[in-house]
Specification:
Keywords: Membrane, Transmembrane, Transmembrane helix. The protein is mainly alpha-helical. The chain folds into 2 domains: about 250 residues, no CATH class; about 110 residues. The protein contains 14 helices and no strands. Helix 3 packs antiparallel against helix 10, helix 5 packs antiparallel against helix 6 and helix 8 packs antiparallel against helix 9. It is globular.
Amino acid sequence: MDWSWAIEGVNNDVPRTMGPECENYMSNERRWTEAVIVSLGCLWILRWASKRADPIYLPCASKLNQPHTTGRLLLMLLMTFVFGIEMGFKFANKSVIFVLNPCHIQTLVQIYILAAKPSKATVALFRIQMNNLNGPLLAFIFPEVESRTLPFEQATYWLQHALLYIVPVYIIRNGIYEVEDIYDFNWVTIGVMIMLIYHFVVLNAISIASGVNLNHMLCAAVTDPFEGQNYRIAAVIHESILCPILNKVTVLLYSNKQTMKSNLLRKHTYNQNTSTIINDNNLSKDKLLYHQHYELTEKTTTEGTPLQQPQQHLPTLNVTEECIVKQRKHNISEENDIDIRIQEQHQTSKLLADVENERELLKNSSTTAKCNMSATKVD
């Protein structure tokens, strides 16, 4: 297959873009060894962080069905327009292979996030791409525009990387998608690990096969302060530190009050839901205790005890259990509306307190029945 339209325009006029100097910067054996070790380590950490990450909460149905705001639509159109121009430059220069660079992938992800309605998948994508803000920052600190010779090509470079930071700020500021708790670093870990896996699996393989230095996976940039044989290991370390810092600082600077309120209440709500499930399991034990008490009193009655006392007619636990199940269903339908969740928490606490009272009553009744049984045997 002819790939000239994708790589023919790439040359070594710009230092360390391709060519023998870049290919011989380090051996392919070392490149593959680093790729295998880093990828396996990232997969293990990714699996660990995925199990620990808090679940994603969506807003109520009324908020999910709201139409896109004018600002969001304009930002989406501008982002799409800039990316279309960038693709035109890539096809004109026959260097389409550079579309695989992370900043272009992040551009596509942000366009989709702006266009789609909130869902668990889009929220996950937004949280993951929040850990790729190092790309726009490094693009401004260490710009690479020497190969951009067409009119407005350099201007497109600056505008695209500026939008890569403006879009997340706009989304956070307007509360379109909620980020994770400010103290939760599990989603940060997931985002960083996915970024590293993309570099060492996808970009590393394509760079070795094509000889093109995609995002400096073949050789270090001229301006790289960590230039040398270990530059990729150094990049793994300093980018794993830089990405979480940029993520959390951006959230702290631009989150609105509603977003911060959601972050503070989310973990508390999650813990209380877990506690509710535990208490529901205790209800099964209460039902067993109730049936044991019923069988005991029936046995005492059939034996014709002379000291029979009027049995206490206790309210069935099914009523309380049905109330809690019904209450939880109501909570699930509105669980993502913060104010409603606060009211539900008080109602659930009251129901659980009633369950505790019934439990004590059951224990006392069971003890009384045992005493009656013992008295009968003595007589």
